[in-house]
Amino acid sequence: MNQLIFDFASHDYPGFDKFLGTENAELVYVLQHKHGQFIYVWGEEGAGKSHLLQAWVAQALDAGRNALYIDAAATPLTEAALDAEYLAIDQIEKLNNEEQALLFAIFNRFRNSGKGFLLLSSEYTPQQLVIREDLRTRMAYCLVYEVKPLTDREKIDALVSMAAARQVTIDPEIFEYLLNHWRRDMDSLMQMLDTLDNYAVMMGKRITLPLLRQLLKQQETQ
Known about the structure:
Blueprint: H1 2-9, H2 25-32, E1 38-42, H3 49-62, E2 67-71, E3 86-90, H4 97-113, E4 117-122, H5 133-139, E5 143-146, H6 152-165, H7 172-181, H8 186-203, H9 209-221
Parallel strand pairs: 1-4, 1-5, 2-3, 3-4
């Protein structure tokens, strides 16, 4: 069972230093300094929950710990997770009944042994989750934090900095327009920055508002 964990450990996860914004400073501090055996984070899609879970696992792996990240929407929760010292489960609302029973057992093992750290995430608060009642009682063990999304100004500043790192100068007005006419989560915005940069190179033009409008119009028809 350990082999599965080490296979996952080979993934290249982002670090806490790449997590943007200041609104979640307390949560980042708690995760970095292991304050709390059980932690539950929730927030809207694109707020950065997956980044935090992966950074937490990466930190444990760097310290030589047996750590595992599971996205419940894509990867089954199996008994291999019982061997993890640090276990992060993303989108726990996607766990089926059998997996919820296993998570209940993991809570009990970690709590009874005093060993093991568990970090859970969802778009929903613990009270809003549709889960087994026995598992809901274990959620009471968790420190609960809302992951707050970046403000519009923080998103624009981050995108300007990312563009500058590529030695590309983009007027903040362009990103303001993008925020109002495209998906607003940072993953989508960063992907659009990549697309816009490549599109400008392909067209042999500098990045301007008319060029962005042209690209967005093409995206709408695809």
